[in-house]
Amino acid sequence: MTEPPLRRVRIVGTSGSGKSHLAAQLATILGVARLELDAVFWDAEWTYRDLEEAHAQVRAFAAENPDGWVVDGNWTSRLQGLLDPGTPGGADVYVWLDHPRRTVMRRVIGRTLRRGILQEELWHGNRERVRDWVRWEPERNIVRWAWTNHPVTRERMLQRIADGVPVVRLRGQREVDAWLSSLSEKRRSVEP
Question: InterPro entries, per this entry (predicted)?
């Protein structure tokens, strides 16, 4: 099987799967710009940015980087197909971080605790709040969000694969590391 081209890449996966970390590494390897969708769609006070404004930012980013880009984050309902493979100006491929649920939960709990205790600033002054750890609604509790969305993300991505959408599926950190290593090797072998 031929690997899809890696010029415009969308990295998707459940919260805590390592999308942002992989995106930073991949953008460096490919020598392209990176866009973190959380920074686009979230606004101050954990409110959603105006959808037209967010779409304009995404379109501008893609237009400013015609030679390639890496975009991390799901935001399927808010993107409304923007940047999907097969759409004009869309990604060449999805890279799907399909880690086991236990791995994702361990990561998201650790990350949430660290962010909450240290009060790390995220996007637009937002911080994960300790009081949100006990909220029942997944939309207000990132740990519950990761738990409930793990099967939803898997179902959506398996359907995309069945539909013939180009997807690189990485099942676990070893596969991620091996894939990145092979990309680095390929890049080094073609550099003058």
Answer: Cytidylate_Kinase-2, P-loop_NTPase
- The pLDDT tens digits of the residues spanning 117-143 come to 777 777 777 777 766 666 666 566 778
8, 35, 40, 154, 176 from 170: Cα distances, Å: 17, 20, 25, 12, 6
Tens digit of each residue's pLDDT (9 = 90 or more) over 161-173: 999 999 999 999 9
Check if the beta carbon of residue 70 is closer than 8 Å to that of residue 32.
Answer: yes
Indicate the pTM of the whole model: 0.87
Closest CA to 160 of 85, 101, 99: 85
* Residue-range domains of the chain with CATH: 8-186 (3.40.50.300)
How many CB atoms sit inside 10 A of residue 46's CB? 17
DSSP code of residue 3: P
Measured CA to CA, the distance from residue 42 to residue 45 in angstroms comes to 9
